[in-house]
Fold these 2 entries.
Entry 1:
Amino acid sequence: MASPIDFYLEQAADCARQAAGATLDNQRDKYLQAQAAWQALADGIRARAAKREGAGTAAGVDGDP
């Protein structure tokens, strides 16, 4: 099973492809908005992971005395 971030990135890429092939402006806008939403979800996961890693290192959780 793919990780959530991989799923979100796949969805964003699919929306980008759909937007590129859209013939109607409102359809293209819908796909671009969906792409931005999926990308925001993926970026949020990355940001939370980076924050956790930074907090763990700052607190000495990585095993250093």
Entry 2:
Amino acid sequence: MAARKKSSSRKSSTRRYSKGASKSVKSAMRRRKGGTLRRGKGGRGGKVKSRKQAIAIGLSEARKKGAKVPRKKSARRRKKSS
């Protein structure tokens, strides 16, 4: 039998997203399917149709509640190597 390789990039026991974060995303996906999930500040921007956008809204809500969620990619500063 072939031996299995362990991924060296990340520990297997460390969760990147908390259970609360996944609940929040699940809730947002259900609201999207029901047609009640709305985009924009205060939910005035219209219905969300995109799956990706629903996930982003769910993660954003989880961040506001204080759940363990990695930072947004856009929020990170990239340094140019000169």
